[in-house]
Write a structure and sequence with these properties.
Residues 1-24 form the signal peptide. The chain has one domain (2-252): Beta Barrel (Cyclophilin), CATH 2.40.100.10. The protein is 32% helix and 18% strand. It has seven helices and eight strands, in the order αααββαββββααβαβ. It has an eight-stranded antiparallel barrel with strand order 1-2-7-5-6-4-3-8. A hairpin with a 3-residue loop joins β3 (107-113) and β4. α3 packs across α4 (89-100).
């Protein structure tokens, strides 16, 4: 039993390291945007740039006027259909706002960790700017990092003690089935308790419980997980960037 527990602890530690390495790349490029502004680069977007001071007010107003909750992400591998959660109103409004402005049509799936997650929303070729803001976290115990979960990336260090989300970088979870023993360890780590239904999800379809209560989950894939799996099969370089670009186009389906 002692050897079994040692092996489990070792595997859990290794998985946590993988999670941290992946999420270290989940940082919005606010420093680059600030540098561009200092250098006098023109804002080529018709999208009103947001700031930390205006983000909540603008998104709250936008959320009331834009009830969209169905999203379609088109890629060269096919389409991914997602449903956004109304219980995470700021994140839903932000995603819909950027989508309707065409911001995400200049993005790509730029980081891929097979079996873990695919990350999109950014691109070195983007001309549209959204402003140097973060979104207040909207953790909800109902929504976990199951396979197919849609969540926002964020800074993960001392610069972000409130775990605020990136303005635009998102990821879709792949993940693998977890054991009950692993889930109990994550419950203790995150001071939470999974419901029987959530345990069933994690032990059957899988996911990434290490990310729960760390990143805001605000939607889920309802069609097209096979497309996510195809993206995850893309050959990548040493930084987990796909060798061949995987651009995406995103639109709302409600109206």
């Amino acid at each position: 039993m002692k050897n079994m527990m040692s092996a489990f602890s070792s595997n859990l530690f290794i998985h946590l390291i993988i999670c941290l390495l992946f999420m270290a790349s989940c940082q919005p490029k606010t420093e680059e945007q600030a540098t561009a502004e200092k250098n006098g680069e023109a804002n080529k977007s018709t999208l009103e740039p947001l700031t930390s001071e205006t983000v909540v007010e603008v998104l709250t107003t936008f959320e009331k006027e834009n009830p969209d909750s169905l999203i379609l992400i088109s890629t060269r591998h096919g389409d991914i259909k997602l449903r956004l959660y109304k219980e995470t109103p700021l994140h839903r409004a932000n995603f819909v706002r950027l989508t309707k402005a065409g911001f995400y049509d200049q993005g790509e799936f730029y980081r891929v960790v097979k079996g873990f997650a695919v990350q999109g929303g950014d691109s070195d070729n983007r001309t549209m700017k959204q402003g140097p803001y973060k979104i207040p976290q909207e953790f909800n115990p109902k929504y976990i990092h199951k396979r197919g979960a849609l969540a926002m990336a964020r800074y993960g260090d001392e610069r972000n003690p409130d775990k605020e989300s990136s303005s635009h970088n998102f990821y879709i979870v792949q993940g693998e089935p977890r054991t009950l023993q692993e889930l109990r360890a994550y419950e203790a780590k995150h001071n939470m308790q999974y419901t029987p239904a959530q345990i069933e999800l994690y032990t059957t379809i899988g996911g990434e419980p290490a990310l729960d209560q760390e990143y805001t989950v605000f939607g889920e894939v309802i069609e097209g997980m096979d497309v996510v799996d195809k993206i995850s099969d893309e050959p990548v370089d040493g930084q987990k960037w796909p060798i061949t670009i995987v651009p995406h186009k995103i639109k709302t389906l409600n109206n």
